[in-house]
Amino acid sequence: MSRIYIPANEAEDWKRLLAKPDKHWKPGHSAMALAHSWQEADDFPESVKRVFRKSGIALFENIKLLLAFPEYKVDLPGGKRPSQNDIFILAKGDSKLISIMVEGKVSEPFGDTVAKWKENSSQGKRCRLESLLKTLALGKHRPIDNIAYQLLHRTASAIIEARNFKAENALMLVHSFSQSNERFEDYSRFLALFDLEAKPDSLVFAKNIDGINLCFCWVKGNSKYLEPEETKVVKTTIKGPFISRKIAVDWPEYGLSKNKREDWLQRLETSLQDNKKFSNWLKNSLQEGKRLKLKALIHGIPQRIKLLDIHDATAQIVDEVTEYFFPREKGKPTPQVQDRHFWKIQGEKFVSSEERVEVEIEQF
Fold it and tell me: Is the pLDDT of residue 334 over 70?
Protein backbone atom coordinates (compact mmCIF):
# COMPACT_ATOMS: atom_id res chain seq x y z
CA MET A 1 0.00 0.00 0.00
CA SER A 2 1.46 3.35 -1.07
CA ARG A 3 2.01 5.94 1.64
CA ILE A 4 2.30 8.74 -0.94
CA TYR A 5 -0.82 10.80 -1.65
CA ILE A 6 -1.53 13.25 -4.47
CA PRO A 7 -3.67 16.35 -3.75
CA ALA A 8 -7.18 16.41 -5.20
CA ASN A 9 -8.06 19.53 -7.19
CA GLU A 10 -11.71 18.61 -7.73
CA ALA A 11 -14.26 15.99 -6.71
CA GLU A 12 -13.66 13.96 -9.90
CA ASP A 13 -10.12 13.24 -8.66
CA TRP A 14 -11.64 11.05 -5.94
CA LYS A 15 -13.21 8.68 -8.48
CA ARG A 16 -10.03 6.87 -9.47
CA LEU A 17 -9.32 5.99 -5.83
CA LEU A 18 -12.48 3.89 -5.50
CA ALA A 19 -12.24 0.10 -5.49
CA LYS A 20 -14.97 -0.07 -8.18
CA PRO A 21 -15.27 3.41 -9.77
CA ASP A 22 -17.81 2.48 -12.45
CA LYS A 23 -20.11 0.91 -9.86
CA HIS A 24 -19.82 3.40 -7.02
CA TRP A 25 -19.36 6.76 -8.79
CA LYS A 26 -22.96 7.71 -9.59
CA PRO A 27 -25.32 10.57 -8.72
CA GLY A 28 -27.32 9.66 -5.63
CA HIS A 29 -24.60 7.37 -4.26
CA SER A 30 -22.46 8.13 -1.24
CA ALA A 31 -19.06 8.20 -2.99
CA MET A 32 -20.02 11.05 -5.31
CA ALA A 33 -22.05 12.93 -2.69
CA LEU A 34 -19.23 12.71 -0.15
CA ALA A 35 -16.55 13.79 -2.64
CA HIS A 36 -18.47 16.85 -3.83
CA SER A 37 -19.46 17.86 -0.31
CA TRP A 38 -15.94 17.74 1.14
CA GLN A 39 -14.05 18.95 -1.93
CA GLU A 40 -16.38 21.93 -2.31
CA ALA A 41 -15.84 22.87 1.34
CA ASP A 42 -12.09 22.18 1.24
CA ASP A 43 -12.64 21.84 4.98
CA PHE A 44 -15.31 20.30 7.17
CA PRO A 45 -18.66 20.74 5.36
CA GLU A 46 -21.09 23.10 7.06
CA SER A 47 -23.41 20.21 8.02
CA VAL A 48 -20.51 18.65 9.96
CA LYS A 49 -19.36 21.91 11.52
CA ARG A 50 -22.88 22.60 12.74
CA VAL A 51 -23.00 19.31 14.66
CA PHE A 52 -19.51 19.91 16.06
CA ARG A 53 -20.43 23.39 17.26
CA LYS A 54 -23.52 22.25 19.14
CA SER A 55 -21.82 19.18 20.67
CA GLY A 56 -20.82 20.99 23.84
CA ILE A 57 -17.39 19.37 23.57
CA ALA A 58 -14.68 22.05 23.43
CA LEU A 59 -12.39 19.79 21.42
CA PHE A 60 -14.73 20.02 18.41
CA GLU A 61 -16.21 23.51 18.74
CA ASN A 62 -13.29 25.22 16.96
CA ILE A 63 -11.82 22.24 15.16
CA LYS A 64 -9.32 22.77 12.34
CA LEU A 65 -8.83 20.30 9.49
CA LEU A 66 -5.12 19.70 8.93
CA LEU A 67 -5.05 16.88 6.36
CA ALA A 68 -7.68 14.77 4.59
CA PHE A 69 -7.05 11.53 2.67
CA PRO A 70 -9.85 10.03 0.52
CA GLU A 71 -10.12 6.22 0.33
CA TYR A 72 -7.57 5.74 3.09
CA LYS A 73 -6.47 2.18 3.81
CA VAL A 74 -5.58 0.96 7.29
CA ASP A 75 -3.92 -2.42 7.72
CA LEU A 76 -5.54 -4.75 10.23
CA PRO A 77 -4.21 -8.00 11.73
CA GLY A 78 -5.43 -11.20 10.05
CA GLY A 79 -6.50 -11.51 6.42
CA LYS A 80 -5.17 -9.65 3.40
CA ARG A 81 -7.60 -6.78 2.98
CA PRO A 82 -7.15 -3.49 4.84
CA SER A 83 -10.01 -1.33 6.03
CA GLN A 84 -10.65 1.16 3.19
CA ASN A 85 -12.06 4.26 4.84
CA ASP A 86 -13.92 6.86 2.79
CA ILE A 87 -11.88 9.68 4.32
CA PHE A 88 -9.18 9.85 6.97
CA ILE A 89 -8.76 13.26 8.57
CA LEU A 90 -6.10 14.52 10.89
CA ALA A 91 -7.49 17.53 12.72
CA LYS A 92 -6.67 19.73 15.66
CA GLY A 93 -9.07 20.99 18.30
CA ASP A 94 -8.37 22.70 21.59
CA SER A 95 -4.63 22.31 20.75
CA LYS A 96 -4.99 18.51 20.56
CA LEU A 97 -4.79 16.15 17.58
CA ILE A 98 -7.85 14.18 16.47
CA SER A 99 -7.88 11.13 14.21
CA ILE A 100 -11.15 10.99 12.26
CA MET A 101 -12.50 8.25 10.01
CA VAL A 102 -15.45 9.29 7.83
CA GLU A 103 -17.93 6.77 6.47
CA GLY A 104 -20.21 8.11 3.74
CA LYS A 105 -23.71 6.69 3.37
CA VAL A 106 -26.98 7.15 1.53
CA SER A 107 -29.01 3.96 1.52
CA GLU A 108 -26.08 1.54 1.21
CA PRO A 109 -25.77 -1.01 4.04
CA PHE A 110 -22.82 -1.12 6.42
CA GLY A 111 -21.93 -4.50 4.94
CA ASP A 112 -22.43 -7.90 6.53
CA THR A 113 -23.24 -8.45 10.15
CA VAL A 114 -20.50 -10.04 12.22
CA ALA A 115 -22.46 -13.31 12.18
CA LYS A 116 -22.56 -13.32 8.38
CA TRP A 117 -18.93 -12.27 8.10
CA LYS A 118 -17.85 -15.12 10.43
CA GLU A 119 -19.37 -17.82 8.19
CA ASN A 120 -16.67 -20.19 7.00
CA SER A 121 -14.43 -18.54 9.55
CA SER A 122 -10.69 -18.88 9.04
CA GLN A 123 -7.85 -18.46 11.48
CA GLY A 124 -7.17 -15.06 9.90
CA LYS A 125 -10.75 -13.91 10.50
CA ARG A 126 -10.68 -15.08 14.09
CA CYS A 127 -7.40 -13.22 14.59
CA ARG A 128 -8.83 -10.07 13.05
CA LEU A 129 -12.02 -10.10 15.12
CA GLU A 130 -10.08 -10.62 18.35
CA SER A 131 -7.80 -7.73 17.41
CA LEU A 132 -10.74 -5.42 16.63
CA LEU A 133 -12.46 -6.21 19.92
CA LYS A 134 -9.22 -5.61 21.79
CA THR A 135 -8.62 -2.30 19.97
CA LEU A 136 -12.16 -1.18 20.86
CA ALA A 137 -11.88 -2.50 24.42
CA LEU A 138 -14.98 -4.65 23.95
CA GLY A 139 -15.13 -7.86 25.92
CA LYS A 140 -15.28 -11.19 24.08
CA HIS A 141 -18.70 -11.89 25.52
CA ARG A 142 -20.37 -8.78 24.14
CA PRO A 143 -23.32 -9.68 21.82
CA ILE A 144 -21.84 -8.62 18.49
CA ASP A 145 -23.34 -11.10 15.99
CA ASN A 146 -26.00 -8.60 14.84
CA ILE A 147 -23.50 -5.71 14.63
CA ALA A 148 -22.41 -4.40 11.22
CA TYR A 149 -18.84 -5.59 10.82
CA GLN A 150 -17.90 -2.45 8.86
CA LEU A 151 -18.54 -0.23 11.87
CA LEU A 152 -16.11 -2.28 13.95
CA HIS A 153 -13.16 -1.87 11.62
CA ARG A 154 -13.92 1.76 10.73
CA THR A 155 -13.83 2.67 14.42
CA ALA A 156 -10.72 0.57 15.01
CA SER A 157 -9.06 2.40 12.08
CA ALA A 158 -9.63 5.75 13.82
CA ILE A 159 -7.96 4.45 16.99
CA ILE A 160 -5.07 2.81 15.11
CA GLU A 161 -4.25 6.05 13.26
CA ALA A 162 -4.62 8.03 16.50
CA ARG A 163 -1.85 5.87 17.90
CA ASN A 164 0.26 6.28 14.77
CA PHE A 165 -0.02 10.08 14.88
CA LYS A 166 0.24 10.29 18.68
CA ALA A 167 -3.25 11.81 18.79
CA GLU A 168 -5.17 11.76 22.05
CA ASN A 169 -8.56 11.62 20.34
CA ALA A 170 -10.34 9.46 17.77
CA LEU A 171 -13.70 9.96 16.05
CA MET A 172 -15.75 7.65 13.84
CA LEU A 173 -18.04 9.90 11.81
CA VAL A 174 -20.92 8.68 9.65
CA HIS A 175 -21.77 11.34 7.06
CA SER A 176 -25.15 10.24 5.74
CA PHE A 177 -26.88 11.98 2.85
CA SER A 178 -30.11 10.05 3.40
CA GLN A 179 -32.71 12.58 4.45
CA SER A 180 -34.61 9.84 6.30
CA ASN A 181 -31.46 8.58 8.08
CA GLU A 182 -31.49 5.17 6.43
CA ARG A 183 -29.25 2.60 8.15
CA PHE A 184 -29.33 4.62 11.36
CA GLU A 185 -30.59 1.56 13.26
CA ASP A 186 -27.29 -0.22 12.47
CA TYR A 187 -25.35 2.72 13.87
CA SER A 188 -27.61 2.85 16.93
CA ARG A 189 -27.15 -0.87 17.57
CA PHE A 190 -23.38 -0.42 17.34
CA LEU A 191 -23.30 2.46 19.82
CA ALA A 192 -25.31 0.37 22.27
CA LEU A 193 -22.19 -1.79 22.62
CA PHE A 194 -20.65 1.23 24.34
CA ASP A 195 -23.80 1.84 26.42
CA LEU A 196 -24.64 4.90 24.33
CA GLU A 197 -27.92 6.16 22.92
CA ALA A 198 -27.45 7.23 19.31
CA LYS A 199 -29.13 10.35 17.91
CA PRO A 200 -28.97 11.83 14.40
CA ASP A 201 -26.91 15.01 14.04
CA SER A 202 -25.13 14.52 17.32
CA LEU A 203 -21.63 13.80 18.61
CA VAL A 204 -21.04 11.71 21.72
CA PHE A 205 -18.05 10.69 23.81
CA ALA A 206 -17.80 6.89 24.24
CA LYS A 207 -14.83 6.16 26.49
CA ASN A 208 -11.09 6.43 26.94
CA ILE A 209 -9.16 3.51 25.48
CA ASP A 210 -5.52 3.36 26.59
CA GLY A 211 -5.23 7.15 26.64
CA ILE A 212 -7.31 7.80 23.50
CA ASN A 213 -10.71 9.48 23.83
CA LEU A 214 -13.13 7.73 21.47
CA CYS A 215 -16.15 9.60 20.08
CA PHE A 216 -18.94 8.86 17.60
CA CYS A 217 -20.92 11.17 15.35
CA TRP A 218 -23.78 10.89 12.84
CA VAL A 219 -24.31 13.84 10.49
CA LYS A 220 -27.07 14.32 7.92
CA GLY A 221 -25.50 15.83 4.79
CA ASN A 222 -27.03 18.38 2.43
CA SER A 223 -29.50 16.74 0.04
CA LYS A 224 -28.25 18.83 -2.89
CA TYR A 225 -25.29 16.45 -3.23
CA LEU A 226 -27.67 13.60 -4.10
CA GLU A 227 -28.94 15.31 -7.21
CA PRO A 228 -27.43 14.72 -10.66
CA GLU A 229 -24.94 17.40 -11.53
CA GLU A 230 -26.61 20.28 -13.28
CA THR A 231 -25.45 21.20 -16.73
CA LYS A 232 -24.28 24.75 -16.33
CA VAL A 233 -23.83 27.24 -19.14
CA VAL A 234 -20.40 28.75 -19.50
CA LYS A 235 -20.21 32.29 -20.85
CA THR A 236 -17.12 34.16 -21.89
CA THR A 237 -16.71 37.57 -23.47
CA ILE A 238 -14.29 38.67 -26.20
CA LYS A 239 -13.73 42.41 -26.49
CA GLY A 240 -12.06 44.06 -29.48
CA PRO A 241 -12.68 45.14 -33.06
CA PHE A 242 -14.64 42.67 -35.13
CA ILE A 243 -13.88 41.75 -38.72
CA SER A 244 -15.20 42.14 -42.24
CA ARG A 245 -16.50 39.27 -44.34
CA LYS A 246 -13.43 39.45 -46.54
CA ILE A 247 -11.18 38.03 -43.84
CA ALA A 248 -13.78 36.16 -41.80
CA VAL A 249 -12.29 32.77 -42.66
CA ASP A 250 -9.17 33.76 -40.76
CA TRP A 251 -10.97 34.82 -37.59
CA PRO A 252 -9.50 35.44 -35.12
CA GLU A 253 -5.84 35.20 -36.27
CA TYR A 254 -6.14 38.09 -38.75
CA GLY A 255 -9.32 39.69 -37.50
CA LEU A 256 -7.80 40.27 -34.08
CA SER A 257 -4.32 41.38 -33.18
CA LYS A 258 -2.01 38.87 -31.53
CA ASN A 259 -2.57 40.49 -28.15
CA LYS A 260 -6.34 40.47 -28.55
CA ARG A 261 -6.32 36.86 -29.68
CA GLU A 262 -4.31 35.93 -26.58
CA ASP A 263 -6.81 37.91 -24.52
CA TRP A 264 -9.67 35.84 -25.97
CA LEU A 265 -7.87 32.57 -25.24
CA GLN A 266 -7.15 33.72 -21.68
CA ARG A 267 -10.82 34.57 -21.16
CA LEU A 268 -11.83 31.17 -22.47
CA GLU A 269 -9.35 29.36 -20.20
CA THR A 270 -10.37 31.41 -17.16
CA SER A 271 -14.07 30.74 -17.75
CA LEU A 272 -13.51 26.99 -17.98
CA GLN A 273 -11.16 26.87 -15.00
CA ASP A 274 -13.55 28.89 -12.82
CA ASN A 275 -16.34 26.38 -13.45
CA LYS A 276 -14.67 23.00 -12.94
CA LYS A 277 -17.95 21.13 -12.74
CA PHE A 278 -18.93 22.43 -16.16
CA SER A 279 -15.45 21.83 -17.60
CA ASN A 280 -15.48 18.18 -16.50
CA TRP A 281 -18.95 17.73 -17.96
CA LEU A 282 -17.97 19.39 -21.26
CA LYS A 283 -14.80 17.34 -21.69
CA ASN A 284 -16.67 14.09 -20.98
CA SER A 285 -19.44 15.13 -23.37
CA LEU A 286 -16.92 15.73 -26.14
CA GLN A 287 -15.25 12.39 -25.50
CA GLU A 288 -18.57 10.56 -25.52
CA GLY A 289 -19.83 12.30 -28.66
CA LYS A 290 -22.83 13.97 -27.05
CA ARG A 291 -24.68 16.66 -28.95
CA LEU A 292 -23.77 20.16 -27.80
CA LYS A 293 -25.10 23.60 -28.59
CA LEU A 294 -22.89 26.66 -28.96
CA LYS A 295 -24.51 30.06 -29.09
CA ALA A 296 -22.48 33.12 -30.02
CA LEU A 297 -23.97 36.57 -29.38
CA ILE A 298 -21.98 38.94 -31.57
CA HIS A 299 -22.20 42.69 -30.87
CA GLY A 300 -20.88 45.38 -33.19
CA ILE A 301 -21.45 47.94 -35.94
CA PRO A 302 -24.00 46.57 -38.48
CA GLN A 303 -21.90 47.04 -41.62
CA ARG A 304 -18.91 45.32 -40.00
CA ILE A 305 -20.69 42.02 -39.22
CA LYS A 306 -21.95 39.88 -42.08
CA LEU A 307 -23.65 36.48 -42.02
CA LEU A 308 -20.48 34.70 -43.10
CA ASP A 309 -18.60 36.41 -40.24
CA ILE A 310 -21.02 34.85 -37.75
CA HIS A 311 -20.71 31.40 -39.33
CA ASP A 312 -16.93 31.37 -39.40
CA ALA A 313 -16.54 32.97 -35.99
CA THR A 314 -18.68 30.30 -34.30
CA ALA A 315 -16.80 27.54 -36.13
CA GLN A 316 -13.51 28.99 -34.92
CA ILE A 317 -14.82 29.15 -31.34
CA VAL A 318 -15.63 25.43 -31.51
CA ASP A 319 -12.06 24.73 -32.61
CA GLU A 320 -10.64 26.81 -29.75
CA VAL A 321 -12.82 25.14 -27.12
CA THR A 322 -11.99 21.68 -28.46
CA GLU A 323 -8.28 22.37 -28.58
CA TYR A 324 -8.35 23.59 -24.98
CA PHE A 325 -9.41 20.11 -23.82
CA PHE A 326 -7.52 18.10 -26.44
CA PRO A 327 -4.34 20.00 -27.40
CA ARG A 328 -3.17 19.01 -30.86
CA GLU A 329 0.39 18.23 -31.80
CA LYS A 330 2.09 20.84 -33.90
CA GLY A 331 1.12 20.50 -37.54
CA LYS A 332 -1.71 18.06 -36.83
CA PRO A 333 -5.46 18.76 -36.85
CA THR A 334 -7.68 18.69 -33.78
CA PRO A 335 -8.92 15.09 -33.16
CA GLN A 336 -11.98 14.57 -35.32
CA VAL A 337 -13.89 12.50 -32.74
CA GLN A 338 -14.25 15.66 -30.65
CA ASP A 339 -14.84 17.94 -33.64
CA ARG A 340 -17.71 20.17 -34.71
CA HIS A 341 -20.00 17.50 -36.19
CA PHE A 342 -21.31 16.96 -32.64
CA TRP A 343 -22.24 20.63 -32.29
CA LYS A 344 -25.32 22.66 -33.06
CA ILE A 345 -24.13 26.18 -33.79
CA GLN A 346 -26.23 29.30 -33.45
CA GLY A 347 -25.05 32.87 -34.02
CA GLU A 348 -26.91 36.10 -33.46
CA LYS A 349 -25.94 39.66 -34.35
CA PHE A 350 -26.67 42.65 -32.11
CA VAL A 351 -26.05 46.28 -32.95
CA SER A 352 -23.76 47.70 -30.31
CA SER A 353 -21.12 50.37 -29.94
CA GLU A 354 -19.13 47.98 -27.76
CA GLU A 355 -17.81 45.27 -30.04
CA ARG A 356 -17.68 41.90 -28.31
CA VAL A 357 -18.68 38.25 -28.54
CA GLU A 358 -20.47 36.32 -25.78
CA VAL A 359 -20.28 32.53 -25.96
CA GLU A 360 -22.64 30.04 -24.32
CA ILE A 361 -22.32 26.24 -24.44
CA GLU A 362 -24.90 23.73 -23.26
CA GLN A 363 -26.21 20.22 -23.95
CA PHE A 364 -29.37 19.69 -25.98
Answer: no
Q: Is 264's pLDDT higher than 50?
A: yes
Rounded Cα distance, 162 and 171, in Å: 9
Q: What is the DSSP code string of 34-55?
A: HHHHHHHHTSS-HHHHHHHHTT
* DSSP 8-state code for residue 198: -
Domains and CATH numbers, the chain: 11-225 (no CATH), 230-363 (3.30.1330)
To 5 degrees, how large is the angle CA 85–CA 91–CA 94? 145
Euclidean distance between CA atoms 202 and 21, whole angstroms? 31
Rounded Cα gap, residues 89 and 202, in angstroms: 19
Q: What is the pTM of this model?
A: 0.67
Exposure letters 107-139 (e unless 16+ CB within 10 A, then b): ebebbebbeebbeeeeeeeeebbebbbebbebe
The pLDDT tens digits of the residues spanning 151-198 come to 999 999 999 999 999 999 999 999 999 999 999 999 999 999 999 999
